[in-house]
Every structure is written in C-alpha cells, then in structure tokens.
Amino acid sequence: MTASSTAVSSSFLMSVPQIRTCFSPRDDSYSRSRWRRLIPIRPTLLYAPPLSQLHPNSLSIFYPQRWPHEVANGGSGSCRRKKNSALKVVSSLLCETQADASFSQQYNCITCSLNHRRKHSRIPRSISGVFIDKSTFHLPCNSFDAASVSRVHVPYASVGPNEPHAASTACPDGILERQDSDLLYPDRELVTGLAEFLNAELPSHPKLCRGQLKNGLRYLILPNKVPANRFEAHMEVHVGSIDEEDDEQGIAHMIEHVAFLGSKKREKLLGTGARSNAYTDFHHTVFHIHSPTTTKDADDDILPSVLDALNEIAFHPKFLSSRVEKERRAILSELQMMNTIEYRVDCQLLQHLHSENKLSKRFPIGLEEQIKKWDADKIRKFHERWYFPANATLYIVGDIDSISKTVHQIDTVFGQTGLENETASAPTPSAFGAMASFLVPKLSVGLSGSSSPEKSSSSIDQSKILKKERHAVRPPVQHNWSLPGHNVHMKPPQIFQHELLQNFSINMFCKIPVSKVRTYGDLRNVLMKRIFLSALHFRINTRYKSSNPPFTSIELDHSDSGREGCTVTTLTVTAEPKNWQSAIKVAVQEVRRLKEFGVTKGELTRYTDALLKDSEHLAAMIDNVSSVDNLEFIMESDALGHTVMDQRQGHQSLVAVAGTVTLEEVNSIGAKVLEFISDFGKPTAPLPAAIVACVPNKVHIDGLGETEFKISPSEITAAMRSGLEEPIEAEPELEVPKELISSSQLEELRLQRRPTFVPLLPEVNVTKLHDKDTGITQRLLSNGIAVNYKISKSESRGGVMRLIVGGGRAVESSESKGAVIVGVRTLSEGGRVGNFSREQVELFCVNHLINCSLESTEEFICMEFRFTLRENGMRAAFELLHMVLEHSVWLDDAFDRARQLYLSYYRSIPKSLERATAHKLMMAMLNGDERFVEPTPLSLQNLTLKSVKDAVMNQFVGGNMEVSIVGDFSEEEIESCIIDYLGTVRATRGSNREKEFSRVVFRPSPSDLQFQQVFLKDTDERACAYIAGPAPNRWGFTVDGKDLFESISDFSAAPVTPPKSEDQLVEGKDVQKDSQRKLRSHPLFFGITMGLLAEIINSRLFTTVRDSLGLTYDVSFELSLFDRLKLGWYVISVTSTPGKVYKAVDACKSVLRGLHSNKISQRELDRAKRTLLMRHEAEIKSNVYWLGLLAHLQASSVPRKEISCIKDLTSLYEATTIEDIYLAYEQLKVDEDSLYSCIGVAGSQAGDEITAPLEVEETDDSFQGAIPVGRGLSTMTRPTT
C-alpha cells in the first residue's frame, strides 16, 4: 500500500466514529507475511502521537511500513486486530499476485473475521508510544495494533444508501451526480447562534456520483487518480450469513466460492493485470476486481469486461456439480485451517456479546456437517432467493475519465439483468431498527430528478419492473443495548478456558446504537470523544511504561461496526495469569480517574492541536489517496449512515467545530463512554453487554510447576470493584518541551564538531552526487554518516526518514545470544533521552506529529521516522534522532521488562502449532543458530544491561550508519537539518570498520533432522507444514562463498521467437544478446529473477496443490534474500488436515522440483512480470517505498547496490527471459539432501504433545506468554483465492 493510502486512513477526515485507544507498556505488533510472522525479528515503535492509535480503520500517516529488501518480519498474531477473521469470509483470486500476497492467483476466503469494527488496511501496523521496538518477533503482549496507528477521522462517508437525493444535480438515465460544489460548511457569521450551526448538515463529497438502474441495482462512482490508469470495481450483494436458515449455515460463503471461481469471464481477465477477490460477512457478499483501465497491448477499455465478469459472478453463476464438490473440499480445508485458538477466542467473544440475537450463531464460515450435505440444487435456491440487482450495490472508484460513459457501460452490462419474466411487487418497508438503512436499505422506485419525459416514454414503467427489492422481510437483529434502564439483568462474567491459551485476558463490552454523523454537532461529539480518549491512552501508556505494570496491555476501543449494526466500546486487559486481579484493578482505576476528574486544560489544547494538524496534513494529500482506501471508507460510511466528505471538506468541517469545544463538554461526553466501567454496579450505570475472560487451563508456579488455573465470575467482579474503591487523584499537568536541543546547544555543537560534507569517494573530489533521472542526492558527512535524500511532492508537506545500521542480530556472539534483539527492546521500553522523561518525549512527538519506530533484523538495526513539515516537524524529527544517537538512556527496569517479554514469548511457542513447527524447522536447517529464532531462557538469563547496551550501541558508529530521507522539503531545508543534527553526532573510532560476525551455515546434509514432526494436543484437528532450503542472497552470493556472477558469464543467450528474415535474425540475435548481457551483468540480476521465479512457483502451487488436488486451502512460496549476509532461503508454507498434510507436502515438493519437466511458459513469465511491475508502479509515489529503494546505496556492506538498481528496475523486469529464470532456479537447492521440512499436527489424537520448542527449558519459568484475544477472527471469511 502506498503512503498516500496510509494517509487516507489516518485522519479525522475518514471515519470519525471509530475511536480506539491502546495502552501497553509492552507492545509489539507488526504484521507481515505469514511465514515471517513465525520468525522472531519484528518492529517496535519508539515514539508516536497517541492519537494515531485511536482509529482502527486507518493507518496513520506516521505509521511505519515495512521497507523493501528487509529481511526480518513480524507478525502480530493478535486476533483482536485482524480484519480477516470471523466476521468475514474472503475469497480472493489474485489473478496477478501482489507483493504481500502469500501466494499467486490464490482464492483465499477470509472466512471468519470477528473484527469488523477494526477494519484494517493492508499495510503493516504502527503503534503509538515512546520507542516502539519493531525489532522483536511477535511478542504476545501486543496491545497496539500496528494497523491501528490512526488518528482522528472525520466521516469519510456520505448520505447513506437510503438517500440518493444527497446529490442535488439530476443526470440523465436515472443518475444522481454531484459535481464540485461550493458547499463547504455554513459561514458561522451567517448562522444565528451555535445551536443552528451545530444542527446544520455536513457537506457531501462533491465528486461522488450515485444512481440506480431500473432493475434496482444501485451504483456509486468516484473518479480517483491514484493509482493512475487503474480502478476498483466492487459488487456488494446484500446477503450474508445472517440470512441463512438453520440448515443453511455457511451456504452464502459456499455460493461466494462457487460463483467466483466458476466464472469463465473472470478467468478471461487473467493476464490483463487485473486482480480479483471476494468475501462474505454477516450481511454482505462482496466480489471485487482491481484492474487497469485499458489492456496492455491496445487502448481498449477494460471496464466493460470487468463489469461483465461481475455480472456473471453475482447474478448468473453456473452451479456445476464438479465446481461445487471442488469448493466444498476447499471450504472444509479452510475451516480447519483457520480454527486456531485465536479464532476460537473470537467466536467466544462474539457469542457472548450478541447472545440475544443471530449474530452469535451465524458465523460466515458455517458448520462442517452442513457444508458436507448441500447439493447444487440447494445452493442454487439460496442464490435465487437473494442474488438479484435490486439487492446489490456496485461501487466503482478509480481513474475514470467520464462518469456518463461509465454509467452507460453499467447500464449496458447490468440493465437487462433481472428484468426477464419479472412481475410487479410493491415495496415493503424495512424491518430493521437503527441499522435499517444499512442492513436492508429501502429502494426508491423513482429517484428524485432522475427521469426525464423522454426516458419514461421510451421505457417500461419502473413499478412494473421490480419483482424483488432488497429484502425487508428478514427478521431484525435485535440488540440488548447498554443504556441506563434498557437492561435490568446483568449477565455474570463468562469464562473461556483452554489448554492452548497462555495468558489471561478480559474483555468488557458496552453496546449502543450507532450515532450517525450527519451534522456539525455530530462531528463535534466525535472530536470531543477523540480528545478524551487520547488523554486516557497517553496517561496509561506513559505512567506505567517506566515501571513494571501488572498488565501486559490495556486497550480501549470505541467504534462503530457496520457488520454488527452497533457501536461497541471494549476495554481489553491482558496480563500474566498471576497478575490478573491487579491488572483489572489498574485498568478500572485509570478509567475512573479520567471519568471523575476529566482531561486537563493542557490535554485539551494539546490533543485538539494535534488532531487539527493531522487533519490539515491529510487534506493537503487529497490527491494522493488510493482508490481502494476511498472505496472502503465510502462502503463503511454508507453502511453506518455517516455523511461522506472528501479530505478537504473534512478538515474544514473539523476546524469549524473545534473552536466551539469546551473543556466541560469534552469531559461530559467522554465520561458517558466510560460509565459502564467507571460506574460499574451503580443502579444508574449502563450494564455491560458482556464480560468475557479467556484464560489458560494451567499456569507455571515457581517451585510447583504446572498448576491448574482457577478463576470464578465472582472473583472477576470483585477485582473490578476493588478498582472502583481505590483512592484516586487528579492528573497533574506536564511540562512539554518545545525542543529537545536549544539553539544555543546546537551552536555549541557546531563549534565543537565542525560538521561538513566530505568527498563521497577518496579518489574523487565530489561532495554531492545528484541523479537527475531519479532525483536522488547522495552526501557523506565528516563523521562518516552517509546520507541519501529525495525531494518528493507526492505526499504534500510530509516526509519519512530511515536510519540503517549494519550488523543486526548477526553480530551476536555465542556469549551474547539475544543481546541485540533484547537491547533494541530495552531502548524502546525506556523511552528516555538526555534529561527528558518518557512522558516529555511522548508529548514532544504528539505536538509535532512524529512517529518513530525501531527494528532489529538479522542484518541491520533500523530506525524510521514519519513527520510533517508543518511547524518545524522535520527539524523536530532530526532532533529526536540526534538525541537517540547521542543521549539514549539505558534503564535497568526497561531491561528487565524486555528480557521478560522474550522469555514469555519463548515459553508461548509450544502453544502455537505454526510457531512450534516453524521454530523446529529453522533450528534444524540453520544448525541450531539462535540468531534466527527466539533467544532461549538460558541465553536471556546470561544477558546484562551492559551487554545488551554494548551490542546495540557498538553498531551505531559513523561509517556503519546510512540515513535516507524522502519528503516534500527544499534542498536548503534538508541539508540544513543534515548538517545541524546528523553532522554534529560525534565521530567514532573505527567507525569505518564493518562489524564482524560469525558465519552463518546450513546444517550439513544428509541429516536425520531434515524431516521432522511436531504434535500438539488440541480439542480440534489442524495441520500445517513448512518446507525450506538454501538460496543465494539478493546480490548473487551463496552460503559457501560462491559469487554466482562468475558462473553465469559463460551462458549464451538463445532467441525466444524466430525473426522473419535472415537480416532480422542477425539483428535480433545481437539485440537480444546485448539485452541479456546487460541483464546478467547487472547487480540486481538475481534479485529480479528470483522475484519472478517466486511468482511463478506460487501460481503453480495454488493451481496444483490447492485447486487440482484439493490438498490444502492455503499454500505459499516465499524467499528470504539477504543483503549483507551471504545466503538466503526459501520457505513453502502449507496448511491442511492431519489426513492430507503428508500428501500436501509431497505435492509441494513435486511442484518445486518440477520446473524442468514442466517447463515455464512465456505466459507464466509475462503474468509474473505484469504483477511485479504493476506493484512497482502502484508504489512508486509512496515516500516509504522510496526509502526502500534508497536503502544501502552507500552501505559498504552491500557493495553491489548502486543507483542503477533503482533506475533500471523496470527495464530489468522487461528484459528477463525464461532462460534467465532457469538460471535463478538452478541456484535454489531443491534436492532431497538440501531440503528441510517439518509437519505440525494438532488434535486430540496427536502423537506427542509439544513440551518445548526444541531445547530444554532450564530456567525460571514464571513469565508466561500471551495469545492476544479479541473478536476479530470470526466475522468474515478468508480470501477465496
């Protein structure tokens, strides 16, 4: 995802009502690829404004994205934050694979995503807090969902689906279109009184076009230029699992699979650069296609073909018995694959939260026993009942030149659908309550101003056409609201105990009707809640971060849920089991403190200013918001009935209401959000909708070993009451530093250090190297720090900066295993620099909207900053970087917490089938090298504060550091900051010496550890497997020291297609030889060809192992190509059933080894090229993407990286031939002696229960790991492809 799309989700302008606050002194969430989520090294945030945390539907602009070419990955594993969980079943056929897709062309149904309300974007997540440590592997104690780094969102919505009259301009053919409008917000001087102003309606998006065909199909069109020459087309059918009868549970998801994968017209889009997907949730089935606007070899408009495919998928599927059987097998495999402990926890939460209605009984994935029974006729009848144009909405967002032309194309494709043999029927009123407009919107038979005399005379009377409209006869979803007087009987706390749970967690839910954001008063209320909860986040995060808190994380979420039809406030507390009572007590106490005393004047000013700055920044980026982000916000906002505004309107509206906010009102409206906790037990308090604790069966107690964990509902209630009775005091005001380095201090540093730019190369007296084609400038400071920067206008007044330090975990010695990863976490846990406390640094970041992350990988330590250039934001970010490099404070208690976190994480491995299996494989393949897995308890015990500090800070030396900056700054601004804050970092002796490290080796083969198994006792059966083997690094070096460029120089190039004449033959050979010679001598040859090879193997794995053989639902091939280390590896990940997993592994091996017997076709290569080039073109406007391109340009440890690696990227992809791919394939070790595999099987009959990851645990085991919880896995299905 581009940074522009990050921006769209990050501000108040998008989805106001979602407010989420996370408090965690120990957060570590970072999502990446599925395999990498199982391997340690992950990101952690250093500093970030707390408001960036509050909105799950958005990705903060200051959110750290994964940079290309990085080796380590993280993974949150937090079901609470996953979009694709139990609420939603997604089916995605990636016709052209995506960079972050686990496999190519797969149809993966996101079957069960409970977490609708935390609608996450597709990029990695960022956390708000001082020192977010991205370096670690997924620590179970996450609280901040990286994807949740979001700030205030103004409703990015429009008049809901019931109100097409939102558009004031009539258009032909029943279209309602709004062109640019002068409506911004009422001039306050013209409005008599505040009340009138607050009651005035918010402006609607000026470019959003709404309309309806005669058959009832509604459509929305929004022109959007990012990415250029591409568009999104989503067909939303208003049917989901809630509409299923008792014997139909899962049938909507089955139809999604059969209709989507059975479409021949969709298959014809393969090779065009289009990608498609689908999902099912409680109320919707959505089919979507992301496509170029024209075909590659012609200027033909591709939209009609895309619409034709959607028409066939949604309304004219063929329910062939063969396809039904194939998808039945896939869904059963999917059901077993996703049945993780996180999913089961989500289901428990949803069942108790909605125990009074059908939402608790209709998870989209369905029931296994019913899925096995349905025949094609049963499925067809359900389709006939619900899938028709009047029960659907089409969304088109993208690079659309003409709205009228698009409307004509929609009418041409869909206009006659549903009109054949139709009889008239009168509209029926909706039966739904507050969410009627979303769940069963009423259809207007005629749209105001939409028809002309000519139209009505030449067409059938619309009232005689609509046989069906959106079903209003379905029973309403009734909720027991958490409102005073609404519920008289409080449900006792519910307890879910399971042997695979490692940590204690409790969720306290409050459920109220959705408040639609339509007026300035509505927006003002959201702003006040936002301010109030920002204060709560900051207080808990900073107050407890510097101590040893009893909780692992505390998270408060207040958000609207379109999928559930309500607004849910959730307080989630996670803790080690031994501390659960104290954790609840602290959480309740802090909530009560804020409710009783409110926010301070300083907090009101601080967070209001920060939200306005963020809003202003997003408004400036209005032309850089991606189509998919615009579309998702429109869909969600329409579902909730919020007014859709563009970013500029949102900012103007926010400014208009911000000046009317008072401290008293903020505290009054905010207090109401917290009453279900702060007034718990009082007769006037709203009753919680549910209280659910998820706890382990057993815990480890020192001296006693494994002991049964006992807890009762009455004890939970007592712990809550103890927090209500604890004495509390008002929050003191904090002094916020305006700067970290004063002008006098800076001047003194300049005089002492005398910073200058020096020649980039000793032999060439050039101090500045600027490349006109790319806009990249390279500089070198006198202290040895290399600097690359690029001025970019893509993200208005925004910038990003990354420091890369060579070394990473690879430099850990045998005496200091884990020192780097624990050291980076220690730095993040402390959060202090110089004489400034953690609280002061946090507030400094809030005021300047800075987000800073810290990460250690196997090869590097990386710090990344996001900032705005408004009000000296860039200088503030440079000040912070200087202080971290020069004046970091290392604290004993921070070290203790970091060490405990990794100990906890290590001990939680046996509770996870995937992690235990991956851990065992990595230890076997890398000969027990602990630098690539979690440090063991013994290693952690041997670490000291000094050893971890030295391990980290010894890498922070001049010649070993490279800083890259991309943003909307001037040359004068950036070079001033570089000299002032990087140039004044003290030079270090030996700074040009590359950090040495022990060589990495693969285990000698053959070995009895090449095939291993893991067994896990569980109530439900599941299986997974990993297959891995050696590969070269990105630059052509192998683990045995071989330089592959020396071996490929002798290969000859053969023409791919025969020329037409003898002259052409000679000329063609020469041209082709020159092209191949250039490609094969290019430093990126192996990086390019390996990437294309991975796409091809992914596609084949899906086609063979999943689609043809039906052995898995999910299979992927991933490459880890290092930059500094002279090795790499590949991993195939496959999920299956215990009965099929061994066959699945054999099938994967056959595909991997079968590229010689089953030759790669030109069509396969062309498709892989289009996929990667399309990805590159889509990301090229992103500042963060450019940071990845700039990485290592001047790194001595990556000598082959040069400017041509950026300039020639596109031409290198285009020049690659099938022969080149085979040259890369030959470098993968796929023979039986080189290949490692590990199969994991879970179930009640599993062979041997896992007791330890691989090594014996020999130390104190008091720190138990955590499996995060939440209701995010069961509300929708997985991607179908």
TrEMBL record:
The keyword Repeat does not apply. It comes from the Eukaryota. Coiled coil: none annotated. Gene3D superfamilies: Metalloenzyme, LuxS/M16 peptidase-like. The keyword Mitochondrion does not apply. Keywords: Hydrolase, Metalloprotease, Protease, Zinc. Signal peptide: none annotated. InterPro entries: Metalloenz_LuxS/M16, Pept_M16_N, Peptidase_M16, Peptidase_M16_C. SUPFAM superfamilies: LuxS/MPP-like metallohydrolase (SSF63411). Residues 222-355 form the Peptidase M16 N-terminal domain. Residues 1053-1074 are annotated as: Disordered. This is Peptidase M16 N-terminal domain-containing protein. It comes from Hevea brasiliensis (Para rubber tree).
